[in-house]
Amino acid sequence: MIFDLQIRAQLENVGQIIPSDADDFEWNVMFKCSGCGEERDTFRVLSLSDTSTGKSGKGEAHLVETCHFCGRANTVVIMEKSGAIPYLEADSGSFKTLCSLDCRGLEPTKFKLGGGFRVSASNSKTVFDDVALADEEWTEYDATAKESLSIMEVESRFVKRK
């Protein structure tokens, strides 16, 4: 089953938000087992650069684990181009997919924003690296354009693809 991680934010003078390094960006996701419904209370850190071989020995996944409750083997693969899709000024106020997860035996339930985002100003060439969105908002001043920038009301959700 494929799940799209979508975010929505209110942008002011921000041209785009994108992970600084798509390959090493850490996606902090909480999952529940789709077999028994057991939800672990810890976030899993997924990264395109970190893979493991599944129990069958066939193929690699970005998360391989066994449900502690029912014993089911589960995997998650971050789909290609995840993290390379920017959230643009034109997307402000709307949900947009940033990452897609191919989940076998797991269902994502929560996403925790962290650091590692690159933010570009909309009215200058100013770029801010390693921006943290853990507080679900960010403000800064662009000295080149002489204006404030803000990312506010950040929300996330997972949408199951049909």
UniProtKB/TrEMBL annotation:
<dbReference type="GO" id="GO:0008270">
    <property type="term" value="F:zinc ion binding"/>
</dbReference>
<dbReference type="Pfam" id="PF05907">
    <property type="entry name" value="CXXC_Zn-b_euk"/>
</dbReference>
<keyword id="KW-0862">Zinc</keyword>
<keyword id="KW-0479">Metal-binding</keyword>
<protein>
    <submittedName>
        <fullName>Uncharacterized protein</fullName>
    </submittedName>
</protein>
<comment type="similarity">
    <text>Belongs to the UPF0587 family.</text>
</comment>
<dbReference type="InterPro" id="IPR008584">
    <property type="entry name" value="CXXC_Zn-binding_euk"/>
</dbReference>
